[in-house]
Amino acid sequence: MKNKKRRIIFDGLIILASIIVAIGLSQSPYIETLVSWSKGCYAVASFAAGIFFTSAFTTAPAIAVLAKLTLTYNPFVVALFGATGALLGDLIIFSFIKNHIREDIAYFLSKAKSKRIRHILEHRFARWSLAFLGAIVIASPLPDELGLALMGLSNVRTSRFALVSFSFNAIGILFIAFIARSI
């Protein structure tokens, strides 16, 4: 229990540091340099930023990079390549989470005194709702891990997950572009 608390505090500090770095990067000339350096290959920069857009530890700097890229280049192209990178990152995390989440939930349900939780999770509407909530989290600038866990619980097929991940990450990146261009 003590180790779990330490790990949560450590992870929280890393996320906080990530946000501070993102704010610093957005105020510094480094992202401008990256954007001007990537002139011919902004698609690669968008793809790489998309990969980092998925993790709790790298979301904030990735948002800063994607926002700057959408100010210079076509936001739809940045969203296309960024969402492709995010899909790759999500697929890696999803394959890990999906298998481990199922095992953890099966263990939890076997230890639960009430069969009610198992019955609720087996209900089709509950699985659909979990998948929908997971997709909303993926579209938001929040880290994708929570959304991926919810989708893993919903037992969604990988092919459907890929379509949802790509689409909702593209929407999220376009939303970032909209905010960056309106500020």
Give me the secondary-structure topology:
Elements: H1 2-27, H2 30-37, H3 42-52, H4 59-72, H5 75-111, H6 116-122, H7 124-139, H8 144-153, H9 158-182
Can you walk through the features of this model?
The chain has 183 residues and is mostly helical. It has one domain (2-182). Helices cover 84% and strands 0% of the residues. The protein contains 9 helices and no strands. The chain has helices at residues 2-27, 30-37, 42-52, 59-72, 75-111, 116-122, 124-139, 144-153, 158-182. The relative contact order is 0.13.
Number of helices: 9
Task: Return the domain count.
Answer: 1
Radius of gyration: 18 Å
Beta strand %:
under 5%
Pattern of helices and strands: HHHHHHHHH
| Span between termini | 44 Å
Anisotropy-based shape: globular
Largest pleated sheet: none
On the 0 to 100 scale, the average pLDDT is 79
Low-confidence stretches are none
Question: What class do helices, strands and sheet pairing give?
Answer: mainly alpha
Question: Could you give a short description of this structure?
Answer:
It contains nine helices and no strands. The chain is mainly α.
Structural features:
single chain, 9 helices, mainly alpha, globular, 183 residues
